[in-house]
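Entry 14. Ran structure prediction on the chain below.
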Amino acid sequence: MRTILITGGAGFIGSCLAEKMISDPDNYVVIVDDLSTGDVSKLPRAQGKNWRFIKCNCNDYRDISAVMLSFPFDYVFHYAAVVGVQRTQHYPVKVLNDIKGISNILNLSKNSHVKRVYFSSSSEVYGEPVDLPQNEYTTPLNSRVPYAVVKNIGEAYLKSYYKEYGLDYTIFRFFNTYGPKQSRDFVMSRFLAFAMKNQNITIYGDGTQSRTFCYVDDNIDACYASFRNSVIDHDTTNDIINIGNDNEITILDLAKKIIQLTNSSSKIVHKPPLEEGDMNRRLPDTTKMRKLIGRPMLSIDEGIKKLIENPVFL
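Output, structure tokens:
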């Protein structure tokens, strides 16, 4: 049996990954989260014997070491982090504290049974695009906001621990991901929540900034395929993978699409642009991800319809 640690496992993507992991009886999954932004309601519903939850703060060495020294973990998915544009801008010191968590996880992993650490990085590391689509190796990393800096430092940590200690890694650079468990801190779920209640939808700036939106099932299937590859072979070992969709849409058009698909009477209201962190465009090169999932990704219209049918946290 493989023993797996998922940090931030009561968050949106972490909890969906946990659901996927425990569906395999050969995996035993320990989920940790300090519940500062995660929620126990997002934990797996399955009442099996191959998972447990422990409330734990990864940034506190004594807290996370007690967990990691108690289990012979084979793999670690480090997803714990302060997330959300507004939250990361309002609490930059909390964001910087996540560097401690990265260091703690790697120090505890390098001297233990851990074979590989998976790290949730972000498209934010690319900053303003100078090269589209944004490729894992040819696109410069030029963002200066604290959240992006921390993710960039995290990537440097993993590469350094591999070089010096031989600790294998895989870096996932997450682009916008959405799905039923997502909180309202994020654009897709926020727009949908307002539209389904016929409330005004707020857009920062003129709405011409563009994004791509990846349905969570595509995200999880790609990450799980990377994990399975590590068990079978080494296709994504010590590599970086963009995890996202490559169908671009402006924020204004997204709001209009959601209003149309929900048959809402919501109005679009514009507010001044955010001071920082709201990049003009994001568009990933998804060549590696498409190879991992081996199927077409869900379209944004199909994804929105699925959310309308299953609005868990809206």
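The radius of gyration is 19 Å. Will compare against last week's run tomorrow.
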